Amino acid sequence: MTVAVLAHGVGGRTDLPLTASVAVAGAVWAVIASFLILSVLWPRPRTGRDNAGVPLPATLQRIVSSRPLWEVLRLLVLLAAVLVTVAAFAGPTAPTDNLAPFALYITFWVGLALVSLLFGPVWRVLNPLRFLHRGLAALQGRSPDSGRRELPAALGWWPAAAWLAVFVWLELVPPFRSEPAVVGGFLLVYAAVNLLAAHTCGATWFDRGDGFEAYSTLIGALSPVGHRADGRLVLRNPLDGATAVRHEPGLTALVVVLIGSTAFDGLTRSRFWVEQIPADSIPAGTLGLLGMTLAVAALYFLATAVADRRTSAAPVTTAEPAQEAASARRPVAAVAATGLSAGQGGSVPATARVPLRASFATSLVPIAAGYVIAHYFSLFLFEGQTTWILVSDPFGTGADYLGSRDRQVDYTFVSTTAIGYVQIGAIVAGHIVAALIAHDRAVTIFGERDARQSQYPLMAAMLLFTGTAVALLVST
Amino acid sequence: MALSGCAAGAQTAATGSRTSVTAGAETTERTTSGSAGPESTAHDAARTSEVFNGTVVEVTIAGGQVQTADRRVIVTLNSRVRLIVASDISDEVHIHGVDEYVDLRAGETATYDFVANIPGTFEVELHEAGDLLFSLQVQP
């Protein structure tokens, strides 16, 4: 069966290259902001206080904490997932006519990032697999949280990183990626493996093992809305949310996969790639994806290794925010990983602290989020309409449930200029937030004087990531 | 020497255009935005056209290979594009964006005119075989 190979899974449209003036302006802003952050900013940690954030109105609190509301939403999400999976197998076989590839690669993958950025880690509460797991456990008369085996803490985020690596490979490399049956097959395998793992280890599997949940959790940490330590819903600084992400093994891998895969997506749309590399070559694509991901990892590791060496003589302070010190729920390994001892005054010898690449991994999350928005925003706006057009006739029966069956994608309701601004804005904002988080981590770990030593190499790495993002946007 | 066809008046009015028409000889005529200047200069000689106020893109599909002068064709928004495809296989050309399909029959040359009225970079590909013919970059 021959296959139409389409850009990034589905669509056939990519953005215009960024105009040089916009690109340069963005890069200049990023550089100026970095300089200011390095030289002028707060000397003491500002984030992570227990009372951070402005509580939302009580009515909103009550609505959001309503169990029936979430149960209904979960049911709707489950039904949507089932519809997409069934349509993948029972609907039209042409990739351009089937709802499934659009729903998975655009509406879900990009939509989840946008929704999580706005509202927090929503997939943790909406995940249909958690819902199914609860149902299965109830059928067996067990608690959903119990499992036959304990999930080893040393696994951390690695299973999620592995899942995301598999998904981004599927989304970006093989020529058959938009075949509906392939999409349906992936959904079934994903569900089966995760449900089996949850059956074995309990519902905690989903926290660190479900790739999509990890994706939503990480990006959702940057949301202005979040739960405070006392359980109240607050409007807060994204830096507070990011600080709350505990570092565990595999977190760096997770963020690196996100940045590397999005960068590779940008690379495949560049003139160089389109003109030189055969579009359906799986080895070329796999090598490219692997290469980009490893390059991102190498740059980050190099920067933090240099930072480690520059600060190897620096005392590590424990003036850490109360939130981290007070958390007794964290496993001991994670406490050590932040390089802080719990609640003690004085300093820890530098040799006893964990490498900086562990401590600073969360500062890469905004860069990953910026990359995702910059590369996929227009895809979501334009080709994302196709999901709603196709859902009128999911099984190819000639039906027209939503009346949208004969609509065409409207490519003009947002101008290419506006898209360009969103793209550069996302990259630059991601860079600035990342630099702020890194600054706060640095002053948390080191205290003011030595914090700067750790920041220079990391800032250089971030500028390179941002510069690469801008270059990719200019070269499409 | 005489200008044939319908677009005589419009040729000289377009800014940045290069027009040279000689009746009966192979000539090139391409109206593009200034930013595409260097490429159109390099590839003008490869193009043939009648008098057509727009961009002409020629593609040849032979023996499983796609041959075309430019893999990235840059045009201005709302300009006209003429696609000329000579193919040794039967297939369909799908032009994304305007979402048009052009039938190809083995051994025949298909010509299709359209207006590039949507900004963005769009793939023009063979629907069955999946090969990318070229990308059409429509600049506002």
Helix share bin of chain A: 55-70%
Residue stretches of chain B low in confidence (pLDDT < 50, at least 5 long) are 1-46
The proportion of residues forming helix of chain B, as a percent range, comes to: under 10%
Biggest sheet descriptor of chain B: 5 strands, mixed
Low-confidence stretches of chain A: 1-8, 319-347
Mean pLDDT of chain B comes to 72
Task: Give the oligomer, counting copies of the same chain as homo and different chains as hetero.
Answer: heterodimer
Number of helices of chain B: 2
Structure description:
The complex is a heterodimer of chains A (476) and B (140). With 476 residues, chain A is mainly α. Chain A has one domain (20-474). Chain A is built from 21 helices and six strands. Chain A has helices at residues 20-40, 58-64, 67-90, 99-119, 122-126, 128-139, 158-172, 180-201, 204-209, 211-220, 238-243, 251-268, 271-276, 282-310, 322-326, 332-337, 356-359, 365-381, 384-390, 416-446, 448-474, and strands at residues 13-14, 54-55, 225-227, 233-235, 316-317, 347-348. Chain A has a three-stranded antiparallel beta sheet, with no helix packed on it. Chain A has a two-stranded antiparallel sheet with strand order 5-6. In chain A, helix 1 (20-40) runs parallel beside helix 20 (416-446) and helix 3 runs antiparallel to helix 4. Mean pLDDT of chain B is 72; it is low at 1-46. Chain B is globular. Chain B has a single domain (8-139), classed as Sandwich (Immunoglobulin-like), CATH 2.60.40. Chain B contains two helices and eleven strands, in the order αββαβββββββββ. Chain B is mainly beta and 140 residues long. Chain B has helices at residues 8-13, 37-43, and strands at 18-19, 29-30, 54-62, 65-68, 72-76, 79-87, 91-95, 100-104, 109-116, 120-126, 132-139. In chain B, the strands form three sheets. In chain B, strands 5-11-10-7-8 form a five-stranded mixed beta sheet, with no helix packed on it. The chains are: A mainly alpha (476), B mainly beta (140). The A-B interface holds A 2-7, 11-17, 175, 271, 274-275, 279-280, 378, 408-409, 411-412, 415-417, 476 and B 71-72, 94, 96-97, 99, 118-123, 125-132, 135, 137-140.
